[in-house]
Amino acid sequence: MFGKDDLVDNLSRDLDRARGRRDALASEATTLTAQIAEIEARLSEEKKRRERERVLSEVEAIKTRIKQAAGAFTPVVDGLSRAIEQAAAVVPEARELNSFLVSVATEIDSVLDPLLRELDQRADAVRTGQAALDLPSSAIEAPPVELPKDTNERLLRFPAWLSRDREADKKDTAESPRSTAA
What we know:
Blueprint: H1 2-88, H2 94-128, H3 164-181
Protein backbone atom coordinates (compact mmCIF):
# COMPACT_ATOMS: atom_id res chain seq x y z
CA MET A 1 0.00 0.00 0.00
CA PHE A 2 2.90 2.23 0.70
CA GLY A 3 3.94 2.03 -3.01
CA LYS A 4 0.49 3.06 -4.16
CA ASP A 5 0.70 6.30 -2.17
CA ASP A 6 4.06 7.09 -3.77
CA LEU A 7 2.49 6.60 -7.18
CA VAL A 8 -0.38 8.96 -6.34
CA ASP A 9 2.07 11.51 -4.94
CA ASN A 10 4.28 11.21 -8.04
CA LEU A 11 1.33 11.60 -10.38
CA SER A 12 0.07 14.60 -8.39
CA ARG A 13 3.51 16.25 -8.58
CA ASP A 14 3.71 15.48 -12.32
CA LEU A 15 0.26 16.97 -12.79
CA ASP A 16 1.21 20.10 -10.83
CA ARG A 17 4.43 20.49 -12.88
CA ALA A 18 2.52 20.01 -16.16
CA ARG A 19 -0.06 22.61 -15.10
CA GLY A 20 2.74 24.97 -14.07
CA ARG A 21 4.46 24.55 -17.47
CA ARG A 22 1.11 25.03 -19.23
CA ASP A 23 0.46 28.25 -17.27
CA ALA A 24 4.00 29.49 -18.00
CA LEU A 25 3.58 28.69 -21.70
CA ALA A 26 0.16 30.38 -21.74
CA SER A 27 1.66 33.45 -20.11
CA GLU A 28 4.54 33.41 -22.61
CA ALA A 29 2.08 32.96 -25.50
CA THR A 30 0.08 35.96 -24.26
CA THR A 31 3.28 38.01 -24.00
CA LEU A 32 4.39 36.92 -27.49
CA THR A 33 0.95 37.72 -28.92
CA ALA A 34 1.16 41.23 -27.46
CA GLN A 35 4.69 41.68 -28.83
CA ILE A 36 3.60 40.46 -32.27
CA ALA A 37 0.69 42.91 -32.29
CA GLU A 38 3.03 45.76 -31.32
CA ILE A 39 5.57 44.83 -34.01
CA GLU A 40 2.80 44.52 -36.63
CA ALA A 41 1.49 47.98 -35.69
CA ARG A 42 4.99 49.48 -35.93
CA LEU A 43 5.57 47.74 -39.27
CA SER A 44 2.27 49.03 -40.63
CA GLU A 45 3.06 52.58 -39.50
CA GLU A 46 6.53 52.41 -41.03
CA LYS A 47 5.08 51.20 -44.35
CA LYS A 48 2.57 54.08 -44.31
CA ARG A 49 5.32 56.58 -43.48
CA ARG A 50 7.51 55.31 -46.33
CA GLU A 51 4.56 55.40 -48.75
CA ARG A 52 3.82 59.00 -47.71
CA GLU A 53 7.48 59.89 -48.26
CA ARG A 54 7.42 58.22 -51.69
CA VAL A 55 4.26 60.06 -52.71
CA LEU A 56 5.60 63.38 -51.43
CA SER A 57 8.85 62.79 -53.31
CA GLU A 58 6.91 62.02 -56.50
CA VAL A 59 4.76 65.15 -56.08
CA GLU A 60 7.88 67.27 -55.58
CA ALA A 61 9.45 65.68 -58.68
CA ILE A 62 6.31 66.46 -60.69
CA LYS A 63 6.34 70.07 -59.49
CA THR A 64 10.03 70.38 -60.37
CA ARG A 65 9.45 69.00 -63.89
CA ILE A 66 6.53 71.39 -64.40
CA LYS A 67 8.58 74.38 -63.24
CA GLN A 68 11.55 73.37 -65.41
CA ALA A 69 9.38 72.86 -68.47
CA ALA A 70 7.59 76.16 -67.89
CA GLY A 71 10.95 77.87 -67.44
CA ALA A 72 12.14 76.42 -70.73
CA PHE A 73 8.85 77.29 -72.46
CA THR A 74 8.96 81.02 -71.67
CA PRO A 75 12.19 81.83 -73.58
CA VAL A 76 11.03 79.72 -76.52
CA VAL A 77 7.74 81.61 -76.71
CA ASP A 78 9.60 84.92 -76.41
CA GLY A 79 12.03 83.97 -79.19
CA LEU A 80 9.23 82.71 -81.41
CA SER A 81 7.23 85.85 -80.80
CA ARG A 82 10.14 88.08 -81.83
CA ALA A 83 10.80 85.98 -84.93
CA ILE A 84 7.11 86.06 -85.87
CA GLU A 85 7.03 89.84 -85.49
CA GLN A 86 9.89 90.03 -87.98
CA ALA A 87 8.04 87.66 -90.31
CA ALA A 88 4.93 89.84 -90.00
CA ALA A 89 6.76 92.56 -91.91
CA VAL A 90 6.73 90.19 -94.89
CA VAL A 91 3.62 88.13 -94.16
CA PRO A 92 1.05 90.27 -92.30
CA GLU A 93 -0.99 87.17 -91.41
CA ALA A 94 1.90 86.11 -89.16
CA ARG A 95 0.44 88.40 -86.49
CA GLU A 96 -2.37 85.84 -86.15
CA LEU A 97 0.21 83.20 -85.29
CA ASN A 98 1.77 85.56 -82.79
CA SER A 99 -1.60 86.20 -81.12
CA PHE A 100 -2.23 82.46 -81.10
CA LEU A 101 1.16 81.92 -79.47
CA VAL A 102 0.45 84.61 -76.88
CA SER A 103 -2.93 83.04 -76.10
CA VAL A 104 -1.31 79.63 -75.62
CA ALA A 105 1.35 81.12 -73.33
CA THR A 106 -1.30 83.06 -71.39
CA GLU A 107 -3.48 79.97 -71.02
CA ILE A 108 -0.55 77.91 -69.77
CA ASP A 109 0.54 80.66 -67.40
CA SER A 110 -2.99 81.02 -66.01
CA VAL A 111 -3.26 77.32 -65.11
CA LEU A 112 0.27 76.65 -63.85
CA ASP A 113 -0.02 78.49 -60.53
CA PRO A 114 -3.35 76.87 -59.58
CA LEU A 115 -1.94 73.48 -60.60
CA LEU A 116 1.14 73.95 -58.42
CA ARG A 117 -1.04 75.15 -55.51
CA GLU A 118 -3.27 72.09 -55.89
CA LEU A 119 -0.22 69.82 -55.86
CA ASP A 120 0.95 71.55 -52.67
CA GLN A 121 -2.48 71.10 -51.06
CA ARG A 122 -2.55 67.41 -51.95
CA ALA A 123 0.97 66.99 -50.58
CA ASP A 124 -0.07 68.72 -47.33
CA ALA A 125 -3.06 66.38 -47.03
CA VAL A 126 -0.74 63.39 -47.46
CA ARG A 127 1.70 64.81 -44.87
CA THR A 128 -1.05 65.18 -42.27
CA GLY A 129 -2.47 61.76 -43.06
CA GLN A 130 -5.83 63.18 -44.20
CA ALA A 131 -5.42 61.73 -47.68
CA ALA A 132 -3.52 59.00 -49.40
CA LEU A 133 -2.62 59.67 -53.00
CA ASP A 134 -2.57 56.58 -55.13
CA LEU A 135 0.36 57.38 -57.39
CA PRO A 136 1.96 54.68 -59.45
CA SER A 137 5.36 53.66 -58.15
CA SER A 138 6.88 55.91 -60.79
CA ALA A 139 4.88 58.94 -61.85
CA ILE A 140 7.71 59.88 -64.18
CA GLU A 141 6.10 57.88 -66.96
CA ALA A 142 3.05 59.97 -67.72
CA PRO A 143 0.21 58.48 -69.72
CA PRO A 144 -0.16 59.84 -73.24
CA VAL A 145 -2.36 62.87 -73.66
CA GLU A 146 -5.58 62.08 -75.46
CA LEU A 147 -7.05 64.69 -77.75
CA PRO A 148 -10.77 65.33 -77.43
CA LYS A 149 -12.86 63.45 -79.96
CA ASP A 150 -15.71 65.95 -79.83
CA THR A 151 -15.02 68.89 -82.13
CA ASN A 152 -17.16 71.12 -79.92
CA GLU A 153 -14.61 70.90 -77.10
CA ARG A 154 -12.35 73.89 -76.74
CA LEU A 155 -9.00 73.43 -78.44
CA LEU A 156 -6.40 75.98 -79.34
CA ARG A 157 -5.93 75.80 -83.07
CA PHE A 158 -3.46 77.24 -85.51
CA PRO A 159 -4.74 80.15 -87.54
CA ALA A 160 -6.52 79.06 -90.71
CA TRP A 161 -3.84 80.43 -92.99
CA LEU A 162 -1.30 78.06 -91.37
CA SER A 163 -3.53 75.02 -91.46
CA ARG A 164 -2.22 71.95 -93.26
CA ASP A 165 -5.72 71.42 -94.60
CA ARG A 166 -5.52 74.80 -96.30
CA GLU A 167 -2.21 73.83 -97.92
CA ALA A 168 -3.85 70.66 -99.20
CA ASP A 169 -6.80 72.73 -100.50
CA LYS A 170 -4.36 75.05 -102.29
CA LYS A 171 -2.66 72.06 -103.94
CA ASP A 172 -6.02 70.61 -104.97
CA THR A 173 -7.24 73.90 -106.46
CA ALA A 174 -3.89 74.47 -108.13
CA GLU A 175 -4.00 70.98 -109.66
CA SER A 176 -7.64 71.18 -110.68
CA PRO A 177 -7.27 73.94 -113.29
CA ARG A 178 -4.32 72.12 -114.85
CA SER A 179 -6.21 68.88 -115.09
CA THR A 180 -9.26 70.53 -116.70
CA ALA A 181 -7.07 72.47 -119.10
CA ALA A 182 -5.43 69.30 -120.35
